[in-house]
What we know:
8 helices, 4-stranded antiparallel β-sheet, globular, H-NOX domain, alpha+beta
Amino acid sequence: MAETGEPLVRGSHLKEDLEALAALGADVEARVRLRLRAESVAAIEEATRIEYLPLAHNIAMADAVFAEAGEGGSRLWGKSSLLASIGGVFRPLFEGLTALFNPAPTLLFKYIPKGWAVTYRECGEFVVDQPRVGTTLLRGRGLASEMLRPAFLFAVCGTFEAAFALSRYEGTVRCLSTGRNGPDVEWLVDWRRL
């Protein structure tokens, strides 16, 4: 276990991130894995799902995906990772929501603060606002400095885009700030029913 105060990420999320590399295609996945340190991959694979590991593992993976697949690949990877987590720890929550009705993305986004708090430690918090119908503003406050890299921020865009795969809505996710304003970052999501 890492020291208190150090940015940490839950082992289950890192395992899902590794699994989500497959969404990039075999060739890109192989190149991404070559960029990762063997010790880092081993630490992730050997960790329990509830264990917290240093955030550096998550950031290294995001950097490797971005280097090999660019912004589009980072978004796809982030989306695939969240969908993998729904198949795991968050499955009961989302199955219950989607079984009852076709939720608008804003309802799904309301779970982001809780999901973030379960996944990350010492990595800030999320606030969700809906300034108008069809628009959601997600604010990451006090994010760990390592998270302010474009590679990570684009992957988070993809995480939010997963809401469209879980509903009958479509939309766009834009990162409005890329860490230039300190540890606070905003994402604007515009969406509409298909």
